[in-house]
Design a protein that fits this description.
The chain is α/β, with parallel strands linked by helices. The protein has two domains: 173 residues, 3-Layer(aba) Sandwich (Rossmann fold); 185 residues, Dehydroquinate synthase-like, alpha domain, CATH 1.20.1090.10. It contains 14 helices and eleven strands. Helix 6 packs parallel to helix 11 and helix 11 packs antiparallel against helix 12. The longest helix has 21 residues. The chain starts with a strand and ends with a helix. The model has no long low-confidence stretch (mean pLDDT 93). The protein binds nicotinamide-adenine-dinucleotide and zinc ion. Zinc ion binds next to helix 11.
Length: 364
Amino acid sequence: MKKITVKLKSAPYDVLVGSGLLRSAGKRISRVLKKPSLCVIVTSPRIRKFWGDALEKSLESARLRFQVAEMDDGEAQKIFASVEMLMREFAAMGADRSSVVIALGGGVVGDVAGFAASIFMRGIPVVQIPTTLLAQVDAAIGGKTGVNLVEGKNLVGAFHQPKLVVIDPDVLSTLSDREFRAGLFEVIKCGVIRDAKLFDFMEHERERILQRDPATLLRIITSAVKVKADVVAQDEREGDLRRILNFGHTIGHALEADTGYKHFLHGEAVAWGMLVAVEIGASEGATPRKVADRISRVIESYGPLAPVSSESPDILRLIKSDKKSKNGVPHFVLATRIGSVKIVNDVKPASVKSAVAKLRSATL
Ligand SMILES: NC(=O)c1ccc[n+]([C@@H]2O[C@H](COP(=O)([O-])OP(=O)(O)OC[C@H]3O[C@@H](n4cnc5c(N)ncnc54)[C@H](O)[C@@H]3O)[C@@H](O)[C@H]2O)c1
Ligand SMILES: [Zn+2]
């Protein structure tokens, strides 16, 4: 088992990564939270069917009292109504300030359950047990929780850091191939922005990674978690450093918004976004051509991706209105070499336009 500490000044916490860890989650939780009055597992029916038993047994053997609150984990359910429904269940179960929420699921469950925990009785602890690759390397770490509004994605939420994150790569065995590959693009992102060795590994071990070989998964998840933990610890509230995690996301978010969040999985949109970012980087002189081509090749090797049909003017408009733009000026994270990026606010619209136009003709 690997232990990565997210070194926040106020409340550091551990991310544990190991095969079979779900079965000892109860023991781990009781070490971190002394005698919680109740553990409320928040999960979806689908995830519960595969992994609920293992978690419940581990809580039983650690003599922890628990109840289960189910929610539907479609993105359409990432709304206030789900948060209210969960909190009413917490109240009906008799949860109090010394109870703990255990989020067992992908990013949707983690974000909604985390948000409910952040406001129920003005805040109770949450433990994240992510079950998708995306949630394991990204969503479960860093304390961002929240829901969508009709007006936009993730517009409401709170920072609520977990007390513990338990990552068991074995749970990925039931994940669909498409969801799994979408998560791999976020791992490639971590390599590009901060870990050249991880990038090399993704480049050379494609076969074993796609076969979901347990030791290989442990290797890539641990490295990606370290990147995220490190960045979050240095920049808890999303100042400038944390923006490097948005490599590929300026265009990725625009593609998702333009297609009503239905056409792409998040990781797929980020993959296209990274392909655009390296083209922009090359035309702006920030990314050496060789580096750009190498990044593109590795991304493409983990395809296929849902094709892009968006028009470039729509993309340009959407990136200006992105939540992460400052005063309507989009920022781009551009690779300067593998393992290092810089944030640029003055990319020429023509560079963006021609990079997006290239995408439309590409199908991976
Ligand atoms: N808080 C953050 O920092 C952060 C970061 C990135 C993404 N997010 C959010 O995460 C969400 C996306 O999360 P996601 O990609 O994990 O998708 P998800 O939670 O929507 O799950 C995807 C699908 O996989 C299923 N599933 C989950 N685990 C499974 C397993 N082990 N076996 C079989 N099926 C399984 C789910 O039931 C669901 O149908 C978005 O809402 C996004 O905004 C948050
Ligand atoms: Zn992302």
